[in-house]
Structures are given as C-alpha cells and as structure tokens.
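Review the following:
>
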Amino acid sequence: MTYETDDRVHPEALERELQLCARQEGRPTAALVREALAEYVARHRPAPGLPAFVAAFASGRTGHGRAARGSAVSNVDTARRNG
C-alpha cells in the first residue's frame, strides 16, 4: 500500500496500517515505531571511516615524518651512550 502521492503523506492511512500490524503481531504500536525507526537510522548511518579530525591539521609541508624518525633514532642512540 502506498502512503505518499505527489509529495504528500497520508498519515491516517499509515496509522491505520500501523495499528493493524500491531494488532496482528500482538505488540504495542510504539514498539513497531521504535523498531522501524531503528532500522531506518541503521540504513542511513554513514559508513564508518576515519574520524573527522584526521588530517585536520595538515600543514601542507612534507618531510616531517622523516625528520621525526631521525630525531627519535638519534634520541635512542644518545640514551644508549649516556645510559
């Protein structure tokens, strides 16, 4: 059954169908609404990906990773010599 025509929803027809389904299943209408809402939200949830803040602070400059690795290695070497 269709509840929409020309971008208009027919809430009365939808509510009657909801009540009928609830009666047939022996469940409260609120339970059916919660279930339908949960399914809708799950279907429309964005795909998991990287958090929004990842790469938010990119400077546009390159080579920082190499510099950091070199610094870490030299710190380990210094610690070994002094330790």
